[in-house]
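Chain A, query sequence.
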Amino acid sequence: MPFFLYDVSDTSSGRSYRCVRPIRLAGTTGPLAKIQHNQNASQECPFEWHATAADIVGVLPDGKAEQQEIVIDLKPTVGCNVSLYRLLDVWGFSCEEWTPLALRLECLFVDVDQADPRKFKESFTVIEAKRECVGEFLYLQGGVHSGSWNWGMIGRVNGTLLWPKAFSYLAGELGKALQP
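Chain A, predicted structure.
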């Protein structure tokens, strides 16, 4: 599930997206680790935190929060399929060595057939309309005190086990954000 930084602009035909480059959100020097550490100077554990997409873009070396957005390619290897989602928010529940996450995503294109998905993803326009938001749970192998901050194991199912406090916080925040 790759993440990309896009330049965005409003045009008469909708919102225009131009791919700038792939980005890495994970890792000890990645934006998610930086944001958690910045918000948690006292190293409280566990620690509940939140970052908007603009917050994340803002900590990228060349990020311009007011002109750029993060887009997730949910199905990058599926034939002629385009499934692109705009990242809106990330909530984390950082424990000692791992961090479960809840992501709020806006559907841009869901299982749309395209003859050349790679070319389509370079530059596209989205007609402004009320688009559906969805949530996703993931986890990072890093927390308040240690870890690589890399993504959890990727396989046919990339899920996370959520203990009651983590589930309550992440589901509650994501649930509030998904309400119309």
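The two ends are 27 Å apart (CA to CA). Strands lie at 3-11, 14-23, 47-52, 68-73, 81-94, 99-113, 123-126, 133-142, 147-151.
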